[in-house]
């Protein structure tokens, strides 16, 4: 039997920075998925090295073995800050555990395995979470988002996750931003607690602007200003990637298409990708027939 597990990508993060020097992000999972299939005959499949490493480390963790292969089905852009690797790795961990041992790993177990491979987004946790993507020291559930949509744009280029997190100046830059990042966390946390999309958008916008000192994105200030005219509640960003997202609540979507047109016209250096829904994270296990298990 082929085991399939789907994991959501992201539109960057709602917030990212440090608290007292400890790295963290607040997840921004969206309904744009990667699906990993574990195939009993390993000769019939192939996968990227990071995803294969997730399978091997999961088998080692479970103290088992098997002739398994992986097949990844995903159109999540790579190197853009949309958690494509985190989605593949976490889905591979869960699918391998189910195929090899008939066992579902906990989110914390997946985190422990994934963090051995690279800095990891916490999109495999249900809901929205605050997560230390480097060492896993912070793992805090924040709740579920109200109905919200994100128009995703790419400013171009690619960012290597490992290289970004190895920057010598990153810790000092994050320390300088901690006060503003704390304010962004408070806004997003309160927005999730109360179901207020505008507070979530305000916190995400603050974090995106603060991150300009770390990874500059052209046109973001202009996008923020323009999007307000079309009812957007805020702008989120990939803090270690190239995407930005214009955020709308379910009640402010009327100006969504006009906003995309205006941003594309005024900022030719950014490319519209698609509009997605902000969701709660978590992995989805499916059978051969596509039904959830």
Please characterize this protein's 3D structure.
The chain contains 9 helices and 10 strands. The chain folds into 2 domains: about 5-140 and about 280-285, Ribosomal Protein S5, domain 2; about 145-280, Alpha-Beta Plaits, CATH 3.30.70. About 45% of the residues are buried. Strands 1, 2, 3, 4, 5 and 10 form a 6-stranded antiparallel β-sheet that branches. It has a 4-stranded antiparallel β-sheet with strand order 7-8-6-9. Strand 4 (about 130) and strand 5 (about 140-145) form a beta hairpin. The chain has about 290 residues and is an alpha+beta fold. The protein is globular, with a radius of gyration of 19 Å.
Which keywords apply here?
6-stranded antiparallel sheet; Alpha-Beta Plaits; 9 helices; alpha+beta; single chain; Ribosomal Protein S5, domain 2
User: Stretches where pLDDT falls below 50 for ≥5 residues?
Assistant: none
Which CATH class of the largest domain applies here? Alpha Beta
Under CATH, the topology of the largest domain can be stated as Ribosomal Protein S5, domain 2
Report the radius of gyration as a whole number of Å. Answer: 19 Å
Q: Count the DSSP helices.
A: 9
Number of domains: 2
Order of helices and strands: EEHEHHEEEHHHHHEEHEE
Which sheet architecture does the biggest sheet show? 6 strands, antiparallel
Overall pLDDT score: 94
What structural class do you assign from the helix and strand content? alpha+beta
Shape: globular
For the record, give the distance between the C-alpha atoms at the N and C termini, rounded to a whole number. Answer: 13 Å
Name the helicity range.
25-40%
- The count of strands amounts to 10
CATH level-two architecture of the largest domain: 2-Layer Sandwich
């Amino acid at each position: 039997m082929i085991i399939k597990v789907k994991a959501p990508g992201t539109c960057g993060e709602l917030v990212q920075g440090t608290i007292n020097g400890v790295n963290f992000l607040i997840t921004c999972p969206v309904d744009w998925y990667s699906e990993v299939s574990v195939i009993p005959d390993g000769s019939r499949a192939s996968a990227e090295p990071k995803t294969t490493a997730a399978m091997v480390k999961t088998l080692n963790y479970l103290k088992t073995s098997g002739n398994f292969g992986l097949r990844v089905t995903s159109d999540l852009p790579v190197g853009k800050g949309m958690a494509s690797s985190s989605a593949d790795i976490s889905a591979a961990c869960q699918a391998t555990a189910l195929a090899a041992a008939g066992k579902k790993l906990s989110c914390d177990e997946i985190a422990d395995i994934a963090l051995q491979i690279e800095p990891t987004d916490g999109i495999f946790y249900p809901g929205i979470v605050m997560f230390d993507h480097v060492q896993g020291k912070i793992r805090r559930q924040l709740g579920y988002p109200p109905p919200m949509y994100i128009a995703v744009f790419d400013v171009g280029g690619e960012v290597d996750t490992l290289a970004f997190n190895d920057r010598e100046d990153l810790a000092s830059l994050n320390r300088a931003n901690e006060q503003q990042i704390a304010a962004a966390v408070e806004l997003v946390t309160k927005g999730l607690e109360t179901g207020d999309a505008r507070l979530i958008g305000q916190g995400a916008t603050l974090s995106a602007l603060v991150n300009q000192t770390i990874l500059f994105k052209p046109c973001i200030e202009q996008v923020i200003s323009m999007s307000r005219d079309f009812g957007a509640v805020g702008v989120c960003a990939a803090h270690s990637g190239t995407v930005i997202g214009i955020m709308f609540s379910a009640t402010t979507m009327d100006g969504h298409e006009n906003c995309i047109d205006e941003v594309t016209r005024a900022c030719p250096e950014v490319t519209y990708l698609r509009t997605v829904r902000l969701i709660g994270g978590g992995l989805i296990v499916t059978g051969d027939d596509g039904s959830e298990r």
